[in-house]
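Progress against Task 2.4 (sequence-to-structure conversion) is shown through the following example record, which the project officer requested during the mid-term review.
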Amino acid sequence: MGQGRITRLLGLALLLIAAATLAAGCGAAADSAGAADGPAQHGGTLTVAMEQAPNCLNAWIVCGGMAATSTITSPLFDSLLITEADGTKVPQLATQVPTTENGSVVETKSGGMDVTVHLVREGRWSDGKPITCDDLKFTQDLMMDDRWMVSSRTGYELVKNVECPDPLTAIYHFKERYAPFLSIVGGTPLPKHVLQGKDFNTYFNNEITVSSGPFLFDHWDHSVEVVLKRNPHYWNAGKDEKPWIDRLRYTFVPDTNTLKIQLRTGEVDVAAVQPDTSVREELESFPRGGYQIKPSVFWEQLAFNTSKAPTNDVNVRRAIAFSIDRTQITDTVLRKQVGELNSTVLPAQKDYYTPAWSDVKPDSKRAQAYLEKAGYKREGAYYAKNGKPLTIVFKSTAGNNLRLKVAQLLQQELRQNGIKMEINMEPPTVFFGTSTIQGAYDIALWAWSSNTDPSQRTLFSCDQIPSEANDFQGNNNYRYCNEDVTKWLKAADVEPDVAKRAELTKRVQVQMRKDMPLLPIYQRPDTVAYTDRAKGLANNPFGGLTWNTADWSVTAQ
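Structure tokens generated for the chain above:
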């Protein structure tokens, strides 16, 4: 999802969510499974159902790029900073979140920036070695070592070096200003004393030999299960001596229906369930357990091709937008699992969010006025120009039942306002590999994934339009070009001051609402289901399914 020096981290990372849980079932607490069922107890095993098995366990290199890898290995590694369920960054191995306000982020005279990170004194690897600045420096150097097949060096390549004035202080010297700096300085350190001299392309692929998190690697039976065990030397165990459970078992269940059956029977305890119209009703029928649904990091939107007729006319785009009832989509297709989305920035990004599209409601008179402004006149059932009915070609991914339902609703709503819409559902390889990047559509439905950072330059800048000349690089499949928007996006990406950057980001959203290259529709529902054995789960799509496993426990049997 992200290309471009500063914004490529937008990508597929599992990130931002809204703060409130929109649904919980079968007596489960809204924010934490079993939170009201008494104090947690030590012991026991929780089994997590995974739809995919990992290719390898090293989440830093190409073979570990699957979401399954990060879900499985997340309990093995703590980070400098973590993101809680409300989207707030909080320190974990760091003592504070670096900001310009607390003096930890300083711009240099050369146009760069220095970011100072202070480590907690208690931080330890599972073998007892302290976590120090040497680990942070080693991690930076490892990420930039071209011997290793690192999946992404975005941001790391902007760090000139990491200075260690003392074991608990690290100073990151950035070559230039870099607004998403927290993705680098707040990341996960790697153990220098274990990895130095090892082949990083292979060493962590089949087992993880040391941990900084609440669990230790136990074993991996390929295509069957991965099992983690309690870390008895966890540095952040606290007075409760966390983690509570003895073993965390991941089992691989590729069929969604089988997964639901195993949840129902209690063969597995926890699972992330794919969104569907009836999923909430299915989970409510389970005899024991509960579920939590929150808006995820993936947001669906109706994209307009601004480079070809008829959607190259902003008035046609506006007419389409004011013909669509987004609330009907969320209420009918998703049965109120989530609400409509009114920005390209997610609500959890509170500093940067503004509901710029909130005024776009179904309004037939307004839609028809825009069509007349575009030179169309009503001729029977449809508006037409030069004797040709206004016909819009809609495209999306074949096999996606939710998107087909949305397409059918859109078709009905546009017909009511005199716009003919043809539905063309394509195989994902064709839709994403050809139609979107080459502009072979009028309107289209797909999702982007948001990151912790609000940068969207790769989506909307003029220089990010894919073309044959640039080998179809860039994600501006709208072919949208507003020079002011591009200028503001670029300025925001090098502005570390949150208030100044937020003003630029909001300015972009307001202008894009006027230009209408897209219509945000909704955030996909992120559903976590569990049996009544599982306690302490808190749905946090921003942090991933296993973000708080130290708090998980098993009810007394």
